[in-house]
Each structure stands twice: as structure tokens, then as C-alpha cells.
Amino acid sequence: SLLKVMETVDDVFLVFEFFDTSLRRYIDNCFLFDIRGREKFFLRQALTGLAYCHSLKILHRDLKPNNILVSFRDYPDIGQIKLCDFDVAKTFEPPLSPYSNKMGIPCYKAPELLMGSTRYSTAVDIWSMGCIFAEMIKLK
Fold first, then answer.
1. For the chain, what percent of residues have pLDDT higher than 90?
2. Which of 44, 129, 135, 136 is the most exposed, fewest CB within 10 Å of its CB?
3. For residue 112, what pLDDT band results from cuts at 50, 70 and 90?
4. What broad class of enzyme is this (predicted)?
5. Is 28 among the residues known to form the active site?
């Protein structure tokens, strides 16, 4: 959440809430954390956030563990996550317009993007989320 906006003559500063780490760091350092049981809470929160984006007709298009923030400050038992980095996100209206397929990294890209399609839907975000969840559960 945006907490504050500050301006100087030359710059604008946006102050956002602090999150402890990214899901990427969490996964890479899972030996430091007790991750058993938290995956389902993370997935539920991520899918709820993604459903909200899709209800606003926003495609994220670059979901990956680096773009999911994790904090245990307010919810130490289960954690809290938020989606971030919407720089390549697009708004959409059916029928879908052609979009670029040059965003994201291949291991989280949906097959239609890997095949070069420029017409895609919210399914590309769901695919990416499935890849992220699979990466989390393989740690068990």
C-alpha cells in the first residue's frame, strides 16, 4: 500500500509499506523457514489478489516469485503476501487485443506465450501462479 508521497524540486518519492522478503528469497532459503503448511495460505492470498486484479481487468503478465512479497510481521504464523511489480501489466476488455509476448521469464510463461501468441487471456497469469505453487511444494 502507498503510505506517502513526498516531492522535492527535482524528485518524487513514493513510500510503500515494508515487506520482509520476496517469495523467491523465501523459496531459495526455505531451510531457514518452516514452510510446511504455509504454501496453501500463500497460494490462497496470491490467487485472491490475482482474482482482484482480473476483476479490474488487469493482466499482470510477469508473475514470478520475485514479484510476490512476503511478510510475517502482522501474521507470524501464516505470513502475508502481496503481488508487486506491475510494470508490464495491461488492462483488457473482451475481445482481447493483440499484446506483446516478450515479457516474463520462460519458466513461468504459459505455453501460448512460449509459442509466440499475442492473443491471450487471464489464463497466462493462472499458469504462472501454478508454476510458482509447484516450485513451492517441490521443496517438501
1. 44
2. 44
3. confident
4. transferase
5. no
Q: What is the per-residue pLDDT across 11-47, written as a single tens digit (0 to 9) for each?
A: 999 898 888 889 998 888 876 555 567 888 888 999 9
Query: What fold characterizes domain 19-137?
Result: Transferase(Phosphotransferase); domain 1 (1.10.510)
β-strand partners of 7 = 12
Hey, which residues does 45 pair with through a beta bridge?
none
Does residue 97 have a pLDDT over 80? Answer: no
Which residue is it, cell 505470513? 79
* Whether the Cβ atoms of residue 91 and residue 104 lie closer than 8 Å to each other: no
Torsion of CA 107, 112, 117, 120, to 10 degrees: -110
What the block records as the C-alpha cell of 136 is 513451492
Contact present, 30 and 139 (Cβ < 8 Å): yes
pTM, entire model: 0.81
10 Å CB burial of residue 128 (0-12, 13-18, 19+) is: buried
